[in-house]
Each structure stands twice: as structure tokens, then as C-alpha cells.
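Pilot study result, target chain (278 residues):
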Amino acid sequence: MSRVDFRDPAQNLRAFVKLLGDLNPEKEAFSWFGGHVFAIQDKKPAQMLCGVEGFGVLRSEPRSDGKYRILNRELAFYSNPYTGQYLDIWKNPLTGEDCETHPIHNHYVGAELAPVMKMDFEGTVKEFPFTPPWTVLGDDVFQVFEVHTAYPSPMKPAQWPRESAGDIMRIGEIFQRTAKLAEIEDDSRTSAHYTGVWTRIGPYLPWMLMGQAEGHILYRTFMKKLYSKDELPQQLRAATEKRYPDFFQAPKLSDWGTPNDSTWGTYMKECRPKPAKV
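Predicted structure:
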């Protein structure tokens, strides 16, 4: 058992990877999430649109230079917000239109984390230490990791008038995890358990066919790290086995460098622009 100084970027990063996944690259880490999606529009109360439930399966690889490679696979289905039943056709309460749902199925999402991160901000590379906040309260530790971005949308309105929310993609994601401090500081463990919440703010999803309508959507979900896929809810396991069976395995270390998938990227690969409404 050794105390962790979360102010130290290298120790912070190691603890973060231990919490997020597993320090052993031979092991996979499953995480479940589930909750609801809301529409946020000016001068209106938030409106529940649908439910969402899914999971990720992640592998991490420690590097000799102190960096960690994160290789993840993400899958989620949209559901009736009251019954939880997964939907193939969803009636948009904002427009009354029947829409074909498009599950989140990102086959590869990779990232490299380092004690000193380097990022390009509008052509200027800036360096900053990896020190996302941890709060220790008694036996518990609370960790927050958030990402806020704005970048040119890959889905151009001219080509996708009904699916694209506009020229700029603005997305914010906040992950709040709670764990036992003893598990984080136990050197005999390569992984630590957590429960938490995932909040996401972003544009309407392309399959909702909202075009450039005013407003955005908000995901509000719980999340929990699992010890195996057997802990996944039965409906989620069954749907995955039927439609995306290879999503039960994390990417391999040899997959590193594969282009990242996204909701918009998979939609554009698999779907064609819907004709304009007349």
C-alpha cells in the first residue's frame, strides 16, 4: 500500500488508468452506463426524448516513457424512456416524425495519455500536466474527467441537410467516478472499481432528423465498472450477441493507430442523406 500524490502528474495518470480500466494490458475492463437523453431548447423546460443503455470494453497499455495507450470499444442502444425497451423506430416528440434509431457502435476509440499532455489549440501546440481533480473524503475518492471541444463538423449541412446540426460540432462530456481510496493505493491491484455518472452535451443526433433546429441534447446517465460481461443487463447482452457480438472484446494492442470511430462517422458510412421534407 502506498499513498498517491494526485498533484503529481505521473501518479495521477497511473491512478486514473487503474480506475478507468486495468494496468495489465492482458486484461479487459467493462463499464456499463444507462440513463436518459433530453432536448434543451430556449425558453422551454428540458424534454425527455429517449433512454440510452450501453457499455464499453477497454484495454490499456503502459509505455516505457510513462505514457498509456487507451484502446476502447463503445456500444449503446436507444430505448423507450419509460419501459427501457430498445427501439428500432423512435417517434420524435419534437417533430412527430418516426425515425430509425442508429445505435452507438464505435468499434475503435483510442487515445494516448501522458504525464505532460500536448494538444493543438488552433494551430498552437500547448503543454499541460495531466492532473484532473481527485477529492478524498474519508475512505472514498471522487474523480472528475471532462472534455469540452468545438471543431468543424464532419457532417456538412449542404450534403446532410436533415441530419447535420451545423458546421461546428460542440460537445462537452463530464465523467464523475467514485471509488475506494484503498483500492487506488493498493499496489497489488491493477484495477479499481467505481460507480459514477456520465453527462454529455452535444448536437441533436443525425438519426433524429432535426437538421439545424435550435437547441441541443443532454445525456444524463449512471455508470459502473463491471468485473465481467456477465454483469451486463440481460437485454443489453442479448442485443449485443445478436447484432454486434465482436463488441464484447476490447481492441487488441496491435489495433493501435486505427482511425477513431464516432456516432457521426459510423452514420455517414452506413446511411445516406434523407430526402428533404416536402
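One observation from the pilot: The radius of gyration is 20 Å. A full batch analysis is planned for the follow-on phase.
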